[in-house]
Amino acid sequence: MSRFRRAGCTALSIAIMAFPVLANGPKKQVAITIDDLPLGGGDGGPCDFQSVRRMTERLLAPFIAQRVPVTGFVNEGRCRNMTPRELRMVLDMWLDAGADLGNHTFSHADLSRTPVAQFEEEIIRGETVTRAALAGRGRRLRYFRHPYLHAGLDMETRRAIEDFLAAHGYRVAPVTLDNSDYMFAAVYGSALGGGDRAMVERATEAYVPYLESVVAFFESRAREVAGHAFPQILLLHANRLNAESMSAVLQMLRSRGYEFVTLDQALEDEAYRLPDLYAGPGGFSWIHRWSITRHMQPKGEPDEPAFIAEQYRKLQQRK
């Protein structure tokens, strides 16, 4: 179920692949962002240095080969089996690939469940290795993304964290193409660990068509909400599923007429200056946030396939 629905917003169902590909229209643009570095986003796989290094090499290979810009958001405390030196080596792999890096808190803290002062400590603690890695290239740490896209249950909390971030030189990195890739990743990773090749193949085969249905929905909804097409910002996660599927994801986006831009370039569009007055439990696309601010009739992106939702539910029940 989409994050918009899980937040209790009314949604209209939409058929997968319902929108035509606009092959001859204006060039569309997308900035790709990857959360939960060095490894996460539903992936319950090994988090030691050698395993993460191999996954990272595979994940970054299509970006390097095709010269696609990407921004990675780091949880420095996510892989407890890695030393700071090993984490720095992984982050250097991203920088060698031409990526930018941002802060995603130290331990993927949820602002909906974390007091403001503690969340601020998570931000500062989560920047040590990342800031040093960027400084080693003559660059600075500029972007922050809230874990779960939870930006505050109330406006007072939201403004307090936004003020803190601004005072420390951060800009919040929004998301427009939000999706449930973490659910696919959890099912995929569990199947890999259990030797269930049939489920591995089923999840992999369903993944890119699902992502395309989400992209198609937000393409249309963006024009309704903002009044024009604008550069989208895609959220994916650093995990084995995306390492396996990234070439296909990039090809899908190209087939829909997208060219790849940096996060900086995407944010130049006036759409990202639209009013956003949302505060609450939802962690979802900024397109939804803008629509809520404008009091528009709600619409929700396509759900993940039923078998993914069911398998994910079973995995959560085992925890």
Describe the fold and architecture:
This protein has twelve helices and seven strands. With 319 residues, the chain is an alpha/beta fold. It has a single domain, classed as TIM Barrel. Mean pLDDT is 93; it is low at 10-24. The strands form two sheets. Strands 1, 2, 3, 6 and 7 form a five-stranded parallel β-sheet that branches. The chain has a two-stranded parallel sheet with strand order 4-5. Helix 2 (49-66) packs parallel to helix 3, helix 2 packs parallel to helix 9 (240-255) and helix 7 (181-194) crosses helix 12.
What would you say about this model in short?
With about 325 residues, this protein is α/β, with parallel strands linked by helices. The chain is built from 12 helices and 7 strands.
